[in-house]
Write a structure and sequence with these properties.
The complex is a heterodimer of chains A (468) and B (165).
Chain A (H helix, E strand, L loop, with lengths): L2 E2 L8 E8 L2 E10 L2 E7 L4 H9 L4 E5 L4 E8 L4 H15 L7 E7 L12 E9 H13 L4 E6 H12 L10 E7 L3 E8 L2 E9 L3 H12 L10 E6 L6 H12 L6 E3 L6 H11 L2 E2 L12 H55 L8 H24 L5 H14 L2 E9 L3 E7 L6 H9 L4 E8 L5 E7 L8
Helix pairs in contact in A: 4-7, 8-9
Chain B lengths: L2 H66 L8 H8 L7 E8 L4 E14 H12 L6 E9 L6 E13 L2
Antiparallel strand pairs in B: 1-2, 2-4, 3-4
The chains are: A alpha+beta (468), B alpha+beta (165).
Chain lengths: 468, 165
């Protein structure tokens, strides 16, 4: 079953009210860590009276099963949103009065509910005539209470009964009948396992009607009872042991099963409406809607819409802000880098290198530096390895590898050497040595001479041929 | 202005801002590759400029070492030549001098030695290069004598810096 939030879920506490013979039975409900504690309150309690008068405290009530109804509908669409479009029409044909005269809502039954066929969506239509809701509000107002929420009694009794006495293990498909015994009236709620089936208003303790309704709803109207029913009792009448015994005896003969009286049955309905108003859960509804919507709920809804819009507005602002910051950061970083490169280029060139960037700026700086660099090279050469060392190493190589140099020309950037080698491979160590020194080497070897020596010449590939 | 209008205005502003934000995000994402390339290019340029600066700093440091020497004139090469190759005589000595930087000259001497042991010629070079105000071998051409191994004609181009008087 789909869970929805309570009508006044943002509140930490509220009052639950149940009218019994025109007199309000009130509980104060306080939410702590996901559960609600209820305390009976006198209708003359100063805090309650002041809370109601000032509007600082909120109250939740309900429409009886006689003033409203909850009815299962099934639409031939698998999607709830699509089914929602046809539910009003399906509901309209079931009503003896125009749908326009009603307040209504549809509570999703979920996909995995028992009895829902593939490709269909089930929902509970909760509705009441506007005139009945208005009358209910007036009766509340006459007692000095302006209810923010008017629940559907049948659903409230059902969910509260399940919350206080959950369906036991193995009882997922067993029948449960919740009977609210009021002072002047009764309500019967029928369900199977955890699933609500129907709710009916009736006269006080009318066992014949209960029997008939059970037969109609659970046995499809065929024959007598016989099915085991878990009987749950609530309401002020449930505290009347004589009445309860009489009813149990009458019903148990046809519908046998365990019978349980809910704790504090007098405040059961008040607890139910207060709990449902504060806590999220299944089958939540508020029939004080549409034109009759309480200003507190309307204001809250408006604030929520405005709050959501504000959240999107802030998100939009943040998005714009992040992008602008990013843009500024990129421009700043780019400007810092460019400024640094520009000032370094100016410093190196000795003048302001205006209007040039990248490779052009580098060329300008290089051209400006080169004359001075050329003039300063002799200072640097004193600290570089001597060419004499290279000549010495080449001479050693010649001795070890049977090489005879005829001419050797060496400078910092270029080496040319020609001569003869003992054989084809003897030149390789010299070639490797020069490569190691960082020169790009070109080796040429000629066919053997008469003395079987191989003439060779090695030239590095021109000025600046050093790889380093 | 009633509450409905306020909410409508908020939604409108939110929608506009979100749209602008999304457009800016898309624009920035599209530009990011170009920005990255521009950054890389500028960083590479900066790196090259810093390398140039470091190279110039090394040159300046080398010059500073020379500046600190008390005698800023290279020793005459003839004396060193006689020490390394007694009795030998350079067939050809060319002396040239050109301006360097800040009152310094670059002196170059080309020495041509005929029929000398190459090893001895290199000894001469090493001695010249180990002076306090050193000479440096800039270029060397050796032509081996066909008759005697290890000897030949050696042409040396030596270079030194010298402070002008």
């Amino acid at each position: 079953m789909t869970e929805t939030r309570g009508t006044i879920g943002w509140m930490g506490s509220c009052y639950g009210v149940d009218f019994q013979a025109g007199k309000p039975v009130v509980v104060r409900a306080e939410r702590t860590r996901g559960h609600v504690d209820c305390f009976p309150v006198s209708v003359n309690d100063p805090a309650f009276v002041e809370g109601m008068r000032s509007g600082k405290a909120l109250a939740a009530g309900s429409l009886t099963a006689g003033e409203s109804f909850a009815y299962w509908l099934e639409a031939p669409f698998p999607a709830f949103q699509k089914a929602l479009k046809v539910f009003p029409t399906l509901l309209d044909v079931q009503l003896p009065f125009p749908l326009e005269e009603c307040v209504y809502s549809f509570i999703g039954g979920g996909r995995d509910d028992e009895g829902s066929k593939a490709g269909t969506t089930q929902a509970i239509a909760v509705a009441a005539r506007i005139v009945d809701v208005q009358k209910k509000i007036e009766s509340f107002l006459a007692s000095g209470i302006d209810p923010v929420s008017l629940d559907q009694e049948g659903l409230a009794l059902w969910t509260q009964s399940l919350a206080e006495v959950p369906a036991g293990k193995g009882a997922e498909s067993s029948l449960r009948a919740v009977v609210y015994l009021g002072i002047e009236r009764s309500t019967l709620v029928i369900g199977r396992g955890g699933k609500f089936v129907s709710a009916h208003g009736m006269g006080r303790g009318n066992t014949a009607q209960i029997d008939r309704l059970l037969k109609t709803q659970l046995a499809g109207g065929q024959g007598g009872g016989g099915a085991a029913v878990q009987w749950m009792w609530a309401g002020p009448g449930a505290a009347d042991a004589t009445l309860l015994k009489k009813l149990e005896e009458s019903l148990q003969s046809r519908w046998p099963g365990p019978s349980t009286v809910h704790d504090e049955p007098e405040t059961f309905l008040a607890r139910a409406v207060a709990t449902r108003a504060l806590l999220p859960g299944p089958l939540r509804c508020n029939l004080r809607s549409g034109t009759l919507l309480h200003p507190v709920i309307a204001g809250r809804a408006e604030r929520e819409v405005a709050g959501t819009a504000l959240t999107y507005l802030v998100a939009g602002l943040l998005l714009c802000g992040v992008n602008l910051t990013w843009d500024l950061m990129v421009k700043h970083r780019e400007s810092v880098l460019d400024k640094e490169a520009g000032s370094l280029a100016d410093k190196l060139a000795g003048y302001h290198v205006a209007g040039a960037k990248g490779s052009i700026r580098l060329k300008i700086v290089n051209d400006a530096l080169n004359p001075r660099k050329e003039k300063m090279k002799p200072f640097m050469r004193s600290f570089e390895p001597s060419l004499a060392e290279t000549i010495g190493a080449m001479t050693d190589l010649a001795r070890k590898n049977d090489l005879n140099y005829e001419t050797l020309s060496i400078s910092r950037d270029k080496i040319n050497v020609s001569g003869t080698a003992g054989n084809w491979k003897k030149c390789e160590p010299l070639k490797d040595f020069l490569k190691q020194k960082g020169y790009t080497v070109k080796l040429e070897r000629k066919e053997s001479l008469a003395d079987e020596k191989v003439a060779f010449s090695i030239a590095t590939a021109g000025e600046g041929s050093k790889n380093e | 202005m009633n509450k409905n209008n306020t909410a409508r205005l908020l939604w409108l502003a939110a929608a506009v801002l979100l749209l602008i934000g999304l457009v800016m995000t898309v624009k920035n994402l599209r530009q990011s590759a170009g920005i990255s390339a521009r950054f890389s290019k500028t960083i590479a340029e900066l790196k090259t400029l810093r390398n140039m600066q470091e190279e110039m700093a090394r040159y300046e440091a080398a010059k500073q070492v020379m500046e600190k020497l008390s005698d800023k004139h290279p020793v005459p090469l003839n004396g060193i030549l006689q020490e390394a190759l007694p009795g030998s005589k350079s067939d050809d000595i060319r002396d040239s001098r050109k301006d360097a930087v800040e009152g310094w000259w670059i002196r170059q001497k080309e020495i041509s030695l005929n029929d000398v042991p190459v090893g001895k010629a290199m000894e001469f070079v090493q001695k010249a290069e180990s002076q306090k105000m050193p000479w440096c071998l800039v270029k060397c051409v050796i032509r081996a004598a066909p008759s005697v191994g290890g000897t030949g004609q050696v042409v040396l181009l030596m270079e030194a810096v010298e402070k002008a008087q």
